Amino acid sequence: MSNVSQHLMSGALSGFASTIILQPFDLLKTRIQQPDHLNKLRLSPLSPQSTFVFRTARDIIKENGVLGLWRGTTASLLRNVPGVALYFTGLNQFRGFLATAPYFASLRAQPTSSYSSSTLPKLTAQGNLFAGAVTRVAVGFVLNPFTVLKARYESSYYSYNSLPQAFMGIMRSGPSEIFRGAVASSLRDAPYAGIFVVFYEQIKSTLSNAVSSSPNPAGIPIPISTSTAVNSVSAASAGALATLATQPFDVLKTKMQVRSEIKYRGLLSTVAAIWRQRGVPGFFDGATLRMSRKIFSSAIGWAVYEGVLIAIRTM
Fold first, then answer.
1. Measuring CA to CA, how many Å separate 99 from each of 50, 102, 103, 116, 218?
2. Which residues of 188-222 are buried (b: 16+ CB within 10 A; e: fewer)?
3. Handedness of CA 55, 57, 60, 63 (dihedral sign)
4. Of 162 and 180, which is predicted with more confidence?
């Protein structure tokens, strides 16, 4: 199996696993971010959002059963499986390319432990930041139509009879609908991916050094079980930090892709609308759910991705 095929397969499995397990988090996050005023739903804007989360989940289960929490899973798979596969593959290829540049070369980075929990190219912090941001934005732009479809399937504002009907409806609406929220997505994804990769690699390096408690020949990888734990903890920690830093842009993206009113047609007008209606707290609607989802998806996704790669290359 070629190197690219290995990364595509590992990324696709990663995207599939995290999407199936964590779809309820995405669904609830979208439902929380879509309305203008939380107090219209008999909840004070100053009340804990956890109250709204449980109330929303209860209403969905009451109306559609437990499986209602997985509404939009097919649309999410259409977005996430190819998206994660392309992101991981593109990230690996781009990191390999940047590793040939003196400014990003790994020789400028701190020496790594004799143990390694990764098979990926090594870069400086600047290289990881740049590679993560560029790759994530590129993949997000290409798959933006599926991102719009995913958001609308998760929203309670749209009722689709079938996935093809929904997709063709969005495509027929033209570029303005196909790329709704693309700028907000890029403003969210670029810093998120850049920050994530920087912290992920740094935390992973630190943990790899920590588990290397006894001298071993250079180049010998740590056991797969230990490697999986290192990658999971590193990804979860990096995901939490990156999520908190980019939450306002996620709210903007959801509003622009789900709401049809004129005030949500542009980035600046959406910012103004949220500010008038909710103030600063409005830009952090769904933060708890998104952070929970990102922590788990990062832990699952990167552990599966790197674990499959390591398993393939040690067979």
1. 44, 8, 9, 18, 21
2. bbbbbbbbbbbbbbbbbbebbeeeeeeeeeeeebb
3. negative
4. 180
Q: How many residues does the chain have?
A: 315
Question: Contact at 8 Å (CB) between 193 and 135?
Answer: yes
Helix (H, G, I), strand (E, B) or coil at 91: helix
pLDDT at 38 over 80: no
Span 220-268, pLDDT tens digits:
556 667 878 888 899 999 999 999 999 999 999 999 998 889 999 899 9
Helix axis angle, 182-211 relative to 144-154, nearest 10°? Answer: 90
Distance between CA atoms of 127 and 120, rounded to whole angstroms? Answer: 13
Q: Tell me the two tokens of residue 274.
A: 């949220």
Structure tokens at 82: 């190819």
- Spatial separation of the C-alpha atoms in residues 92 and 263, rounded to whole Å: 39
Name the residue with tokens 């063709």. Answer: 168
Burial of 287 (0-12, 13-18, 19+ CB in 10 A): buried
Q: How far is Cα of residue 241 from the mean position of the Cα atoms in its chain?
A: 13
Return the ∠ at Cα 231 (arms to 212 and 113), rounded to 5°: 30
Distance CA 202, CA 103 (A): 18
Cβ contact 123:98 at 8 Å:
yes
User: Are the beta carbons of 74 and 146 closer than 8 angstroms?
Assistant: no
Cβ neighbours for 258, distance < 8 A, ≥ 6 positions apart: 30, 33, 34, 151, 152, 155, 157, 158
Contact 111, 98 (CB under 8 A): no
